[in-house]
Design a protein that fits this description.
Elements lengths: L2 H10 L17 E3 L5 E3 L7 E7 L8 H11 L4 E7 L11 H12 L18 H7 L1 H4 L12 E4 L5 E5 L8 H8 L1
Parallel strand pairs: 3-4
Antiparallel strand pairs: 1-2, 3-5, 5-6
Length: 180
């Protein structure tokens, strides 16, 4: 390989530059909400948090219904935050308004939904860098495999479990993890 080829590859595959370090705690994150508000994770102290990357045109999209049921079942003890992402086969192509309307109309979603983000690749959002990298979350490295992967944090903001997309929200595995 020539030097110019190496430089080109290092440019194409470089990590995104961030001006600020990744927060050390989930409670330091403030993310744009789907409807223009701000989701401040500090307000979730003392509750378990389930973070899910979502998409409207995915085979797992019916999980919105299970997520809403879970949110209501553990009301006051659990917060679910959905992060729409178009990273997998462009299964979330809509605008913020279209996504919000779809979630409300089809699944009655009342849990907080963040603005659309990237959950993998060079443009991965900082919150997903925190969730997927052990040096930030303290538990493990993980890779977002598909839409509807779930990250569970305990009442102290510590990552305690990662559930693959095919594990349904109302599964015994997730319910037991939330209950304990």
């Amino acid at each position: 390989m020539t030097l110019s080829t190496l430089l080109l590859f290092s440019f194409l595959f470089r990590s995104p530059k961030t001006t600020d370090p990744i927060p050390g705690s989930i409670y330091e994150f403030k993310v744009p909400g789907l409807t223009g508000d701000t989701i401040d994770f500090a307000q979730f102290k003392g509750k378990k948090i389930l973070i899910v990357n979502t998409a409207s045109k995915c085979g797992f999209t019916p999980q919105y219904e299970g997520l809403e049921k879970l949110y209501k079942r553990f009301e006051g003890k659990l917060v679910i935050v959905g992060f729409p992402s178009n990273d997998f086969l462009r299964q979330e192509p809509g605008s913020a308004g279209e996504i919000a309307g779809f979630c409300q109309k089809n699944y009655g979603v009342t849990f907080p939904m963040a603005a659309k983000i990237d959950v993998r690749g060079r443009r991965k959002a900082e919150i997903y860098q925190w969730l997927t990298e052990k040096n930030h979350n303290g538990l493990k490295d993980s890779r977002v495999k598909w839409n509807f992967q779930k990250y569970l944090l305990d009442e102290n903001g510590k990552l305690v479990a990662v559930f693959p997309p095919n594990v349904k929200p109302e599964s015994d595995e997730i319910v037991n993890a939330i209950s304990h």
